[in-house]
């Protein structure tokens, strides 16, 4: 089975500067890590490989330094990795990102299953997985909380619907996005780090993609634009009141009115 796991490099801190002209995060020089939800996706892929055989290939989209998360995935057990990277991909919104990923995955060749984390901690849209499936024209299931059965022909998954769950069966090729409760990710192996130190990471630029239309990528291919983005203002002042409930309620009401919250 040929399994592809999509992973992303995200900031390891919430103290990230923002480019006010473009509305995108300034990632240069910021400590980064694998998106936490993607660790569950990778673990799901590794367990399916152990049960059914095949390979697990991790795919990421980002600047050259995102190769670090590919290397970390090797330490967790991934067989191969590819980084979709080009200056023309910068500033991609959900639509452009999903389309670029779909083109990069097509360049890699045939696959059976794509696994994504439910969402990323920097964007939190939870839209890339479903959009990727649509661009690849394959069935998909989101919010997968368990994989009770997997065979070489099909996959049976439990889709979390909050108050209930639905049992869904999919034929390959297909895509799923997973919840963090699906498993417990394994720890990276120092022995694997040494063994995979020379393992190549395939670099995929725009010239390697089938669709060469520049209007489909990066800011040019992003129909949604951020009008303004800024970090929340940090306030540390405190007010301590003592008294009975009616008196405190009146004070709070007055404070909210003065702040124009009501």
UniProtKB/TrEMBL annotation:
It holds the Pfam family ETF. It comes from the Bacteria. SMART domains: ETF. Residues 22-213 form the Electron transfer flavoprotein alpha/beta-subunit N-terminal domain. InterPro entries: ETF_a/b_N, ETF_b, ETF_beta_N, Rossmann-like_a/b/a_fold. Signal peptide: none annotated. One of its GO terms (molecular function) is electron transfer activity. This is Electron transfer flavoprotein small subunit. It comes from Hydrogenispora ethanolica.
């Amino acid at each position: 089975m040929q399994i592809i796991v999509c992973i992303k490099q995200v900031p390891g801190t919430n103290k990230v500067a923002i480019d006010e002209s473009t509305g995108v995060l300034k990632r240069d020089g910021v400590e980064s890590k694998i998106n936490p939800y993607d660790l569950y996706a990778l673990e799901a892929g590794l367990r399916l490989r152990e049960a059914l055989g095949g390979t697990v290939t991790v795919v990421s989209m980002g600047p050259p330094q995102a190769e670090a998360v590919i290397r970390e995935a090797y330490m967790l057990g991934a067989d191969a990795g590819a980084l979709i990277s080009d200056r023309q991909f910068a500033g991609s919104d959900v639509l452009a990102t999903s389309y670029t990923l779909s083109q990069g995955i097509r360049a890699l060749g045939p696959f059976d299953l794509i696994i994504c984390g439910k969402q990323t901690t920097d964007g939190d849209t939870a839209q890339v997985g479903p959009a990727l499936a649509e661009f690849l024209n394959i069935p998909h299931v989101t919010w997968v909380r368990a994989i009770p059965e997997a065979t070489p022909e099909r996959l049976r998954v439990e889709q979390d619907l909050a108050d209930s769950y639905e049992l869904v069966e999919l034929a390959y090729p297909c895509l799923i996005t997973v919840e963090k409760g699906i498993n417990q990710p394994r720890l990276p192996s120092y022995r694997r780090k040494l063994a995979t130190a020379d393992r190549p990471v395939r670099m995929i630029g725009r010239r390697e993609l089938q669709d060469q239309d520049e209007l489909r990528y990066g800011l040019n291919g992003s129909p949604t634009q951020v009008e303004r983005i800024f970090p929340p203002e940090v306030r540390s002042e405190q007010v301590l009141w003592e008294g009975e409930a009616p008196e405190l309620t009146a004070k709070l009401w007055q404070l909210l009115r003065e702040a124009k919250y009501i």
